[in-house]
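Hi W.,

Here's what went into the run:
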Amino acid sequence: MLNPRLRAGVTLMRVLLGTAVAAVVVGAVRTVLGYSGLDLGGHMIHLPNLPLLGDPAPSIPVTPDGGFRARLTEVGAKDFGPTAFPWKDTSDGTRDAYTGLPPVELAGWHSLSLYFWGPTFRDRLAYAGPVLFAEALALTVLVLLWRIVRTLALGEVFVRDNARRMVAIGLVVAAGGSLAQLLRALGWADMVAHSAAAGVVRVAWSFSFLPLLAGAVILLLAEVFRQGVGMRADVDGLV
Amino acid sequence: MASGEDRHREDGHRVEVHLDRLLADRGLTLVELSERVGISVVNLSVLKNGRARAVRFSTLTALCDALRCTPGDLLTVAAPKTTSPAARQSG
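Here's what came out:
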């Protein structure tokens, strides 16, 4: 029988984990069906252009590349902005005026973002694939945490299975988080390389060591947990 | 279910607890003893049924005070089991 404080704590953890799972699932649905994701809803799912619901088109952070200044000179733009990639109307719809590829738009001041209007399915896969991978990782971690909380509710938290779950969480965070970053960078680079912006801008990306650091901390805690399992076994049957 | 002796061998000890005999001699129930020594009935039951693997000195002191006995009255070590001459011959 759990004491009331522990029971309240377990309930709170379940609520938080449930909320997190719901958020990840909603995010995954948006990634699969939304305009800026795989758009498998085929524009049937209308997502209003609200900040919390994401952009109306895939966008990636970029920085000027070798051809940037030449392009601005060509289009007569005094500063970077939407006119860097002018559009034209064709029989195939709106296209980039220079390359005839699907239109893109440059936006931002201190940090540039490249919006892909009319992305191909390859673009969408390159953009949404890493996001779905990261969401699957998040869901895996949440399921493992849920199982740990369940043992807490039973009053048997220092068990070998929980030590293994902690190790799994640490590895998912460290390795999975780092891999997700690399996949995202590769996907973005592929998008830019096949777009009207190729050679004009390039992906602005830097590797974050935060997943590795967080994973290391979790693995350290997993070892502490494992030793706790041993100590619990030592006092099992102690009166 | 393993016998008391089998369980002791599995735990690596031959300590026998005579709590039930002492309770009967003193006319106490397990619940009454629990109230006197401040140890849960569950733990006392674990001790009485030979499922305990270790006893804290504080627990031992409290039990001896409540039962007015010595540790030797409460705990004894059973003699090691020796094989009979016939069993040795057949082996």
